[in-house]
User: Fold VOC family protein from Pseudomonas kulmbachensis.
Amino acid sequence: MSTLQKKTPARLFYLHMGSKAPQRQTDFYQRVLDMQCEPQPDGSVVLKGPGRTVLISPADNHGLLAAAFRLTSQQDQNDLRQRLEQKGCPTQDTISPLMQAGSFSIRDPQGRETIFGVARDTHEANLPGLPGRLQHVVFQTTELEAMVNFYVNTVGFTISDNVVDQESGQLMVCFLRSDDEHHSLAFFRGSQNEWDHHCYETCEWNDIRDWGDRFAKEHISIFFGPGRHGPGNNLFFMVVDPDKNRLEFSAELETKAADQAPGEWPQCERTLNAWGRAWIRK
Ligand SMILES: [Fe+2]
Assistant:
């Protein structure tokens, strides 16, 4: 099967956030996440830090407008677009201040937008600041099976781990990869369709400490963690930004070979946090 990992590896590149208070969001990402601000002609703002980029636009509601994945070449971009069209998934030309010409977007059956393209420049990897590469994005969904079916069978993500309710046998969480990293996308079964969180992958445990101290200075409390996830085996903690979007800081995320079979975990606190209490989505 033509998976992203095997044919056209993709990495999360930037998130396009909408905000009712874009200046407050911009200030936060500039000050707390060491990101440099590049105002755009349409009133949006690009923010770049080491390995992380966000685009913030004024909007009626806060939340995620699109997640953008970076492909390694124009050839991969064209191959993926052709594969998607062949599978009956409409693609749309996208004009992005961060992507080269030829980037395109798709929408999943619940309307989430994903952009694929080749980065216009990659120098943001060398910007100064605490390390934390934008690495994954996660959603809650009322239609978990349909989302997994779309992202696996149409888009080409690979299942790394499933979390299953042991009594009902129902799938509760699915972690999906688009290259060697354990997950760049995940879906939790939920009572609502909402953006769950996004994650910055650091280099090591000491970076987690430094980010914790950074948020302590800002009087921002950790609401989940520190701990270690079962699936992915990564160290983590989570905080919120001024719009209440959830941010995760992670280290030691595992990698998976292309043909590795999906793992299965029971739905319990220990799966989501081997160290203790967990945030169980309802
Ligand atoms: Fe996460």
The two ends are 34 Å apart (CA to CA). The pocket of fe (ii) ion is lined by residues 136, 138, 197, 199, 248 (CB under 6 Å). The mean pLDDT is 96.
